[in-house]
Automatic annotation (TrEMBL):
It holds the Pfam family MlaA. Keywords: Lipoprotein, Membrane, Signal, Transmembrane, Transmembrane helix. The keyword Transmembrane helix applies. InterPro entries: MlaA. This is Phospholipid-binding lipoprotein MlaA. Signal peptide: none annotated. One of its GO terms (biological process) is intermembrane phospholipid transfer. Belongs to the MlaA family.
């Protein structure tokens, strides 16, 4: 039924909103350089934060308090595994051929021996969990960040990174499994996915609330730094955080990505 996919899209947007809302601030960034839409972005941030504090956070707190870790861990493994084909695909697109095959094998092992990803058997076999997406792929291809934007409900992004939304959606195994799953089963699965994602971010988001004088700036700086860290596979140039390029997004604009990001 088509309605299942509309339901899935709605829940998926909530999941993606959770994905970028927490990290650690380490540098100051000029508003006029990369956040020309700050007025709109702040309103979007406020709207999203209201949804989080009144719906997602209370549910996640109950989940954390009453569900044993022995259950929470397999649940998290299950949902991360469903989204892992996106990691493998983008590893190949970035020219990381060996990693791409290892990521593919990791997904296959966990989906079979690991019982649909509930157990991280591939991790025990030495296949580490990587983090790739289409935004990182575009960075490796030389596409500039573009302006920072905070999309209502979706969360923090840039004009480059938001292109990962359709890619991650259509590479998610649950999207295809939804054809064989009835609505009464699919909705709880999607809802639990949102709760799991928010629960895993509970700690970092509390740090944000306790330490940030301006939560909006905290999230913006944390997001930009985290993306830079991922693009360079954890080894960004020493001056990269002070020279984040966030000019208007144009196809002929490029950023220099060192060899570590292209391996």
């Amino acid at each position: 039924m088509k309605y299942r996919h509309y339901v899935m899209i709605g829940f998926y947007i909530l999941i993606l909103f959770c994905g970028g809302c927490a990290s650690t601030k380490k540098h100051e960034y000029g508003m006029d350089e990369g956040d020309p839409y700050e007025s709109f972005n702040r309103k979007s941030y406020w709207f999203t934060d209201v949804i989080d504090r009144n719906i997602l956070e209370p549910v996640a707190d109950v989940y954390i308090e009453h569900v044993p870790q022995a259950i929470q861990r397999p649940v998290s493994n299950f949902y991360r595994n469903l989204a892992y084909p996106n990691v493998a695909l983008n590893a190949f697109l970035q020219g990381k051929i060996r990693q791409g095959f290892e990521d593919t094998l990791r997904f296959v092992i966990n989906s079979t021996i690991g019982i649909f990803g509930l157990a991280d058997m591939a991790g025990h076999m030495g296949f580490k969990e990587n983090d790739e997406d289409f935004g990182q792929t575009l960075a490796v291809w030389g596409i500039n960040n573009g302006s920072y934007i905070f999309v209502p409900v979706y969360g923090p992004s840039t004009r480059r990174d938001i292109t990962d939304l359709p890619v991650s959606f259509f590479t998610d195994a649950l999207f295809y499994a939804s054809y064989a799953i009835s609505g009464p089963v699919l909705v709880p699965i999607l809802f639990l996915r949102v709760v799991d994602k928010r629960a895993r971010l509970s700690g970092p988001m509390k740090i944000r609330d306790q330490s940030a004088l301006d939560p909006y700036l905290f999230v913006r700086e944390a997001y930009l730094q985290q993306r830079e860290f991922l693009i360079y596979d954890g080894n960004p140039p020493a001056d990269s955080y002070n020279h984040l390029q966030l000019d208007e997004f144009e196809e002929d604009e490029i950023i220099d990505v060192d060899d570590d990001a292209k391996k």
